UniProtKB/TrEMBL annotation:
Keyword entries, A-Z: Cytoplasm, Methyltransferase, rRNA processing, S-adenosyl-L-methionine, Transferase
Protein's organism: Isachenkonia alkalipeptolytica
Pfam family, one: PUA_4
Protein name stated in the entry: Ribosomal RNA small subunit methyltransferase E
CDD domains from the UniProt entry: RsmE-like
Amino acid sequence: FFVDKCQVQEESAYITGEDAKHLEKVLRLKVGDIIELVVGEELEYLGEITVVEGKSTQVKLLELKQVQRESPLEITLYQGLPKASKMELIIQKAVELGIKRIVPVMNQRSVVQLKTKKDQQKKQERWQKIAYEAAKQSKRIKVPEITLPMEFNRALDNSFEEFQIVAYEDEEKKGIKDLTFLHGNKDQEVSRATIGLWVGPEGGFAEQEIESLKKIGANTVTLGPRILRTETAGLALLTMVQYESGD
Ligand code: SAM
């Protein structure tokens, strides 16, 4: 479970809202049960449940755990907005794999275009909830941020990462292994690197989008000779980058 620092008083933490309900009604946890608790997206504790009241559960903090589960790489996935519920699958799996942030991108060839602010906010809230649940189940310390969906040009303007990698099926030669900056991480050179990963929607990137990405110094890479579905491509790219950089 995750709690804010302000939910901790003296030696006890207080779990409230949906989490308290889930804890009591679904997980059927009781007084005396031991749970794992992350405080302020920073410290992980073992705690003992001392009061279960439906709206609020009191947990006595027992032991601080020294775990390092977060990758030192700060990876953002710029995912071309796919059809139907594929985005939910991508978010859940990317969080399990260690992503720090996901930006849903409305590309020129995205079939799905969320036009109104209301639609965008509704989706973002649902996606953020999925990220929260996935972070809980993977025992992440930090819950990754899922931003509001953005038009491609806006996402590009807002991208701040030191290195940008684009999965591009027309790139024939360069693969992940050719990105020397990733190997440097093994020697602690880029141990805190920020990396942006770009994946197109079902229809792929428009040429103009690839040109714009190249202009900001992005590296296009192939993910191999087979064409992957958009929901496979981002997860494969993320896994390869983590592996290649040793995290
Ligand atoms: N039509 C399929 C679908 O419905 O998902 C395939 C879509 S593929 C064009 C979507 C994106 O995945 C591409 O824009 C690219 O970013 C990435 N991708 C898929 N296979 C790839 C490969 N072999 N190499 C590099 N990128 C790839």
